[in-house]
Write a structure and sequence with these properties.
The protein is mainly β. Helices cover about 10% and strands about 50% of the residues.
Amino acid sequence: MATKIPLFQFSFLLILLSGLGSCSDRATSQFLSTLPNSQPRVEITQIRDFKPQPDPTPVYLEGVVGKQVPFLAMRVYELQDATGKIWVLTKENPPRMGAKVLIKGTVKHHDITLGGKTTTEVYVEQQELLTKTEDAPSKPLGS
């Protein structure tokens, strides 16, 4: 089921995200990861490999959760792997900063025109959080 976001909110979201950071140095490289509970191996896409795609192709991403941005009906968090960073849009509460996650999502893109210059912002819409490993809370100094 597709999520409907009013055009103004969506444009504002993308402008905000493009200002916070974007992916760069996209190249092609992939590796395999095994899911827990005897699930089959899936092909993990490295963040630098993301490009705008005409059709909603499912992808698997593995990385560490960074910055988070709350919105009315959606949440956005930054996911980072060894090759780069990308924004992930989700309806769920995002994992904590520092958590290592494996997600299934769909690559999305939106063209943004500012001052006559058009850029394409690529992001991922999360379909499923497959695994999550929270970092242990750090102990206060002196304990």
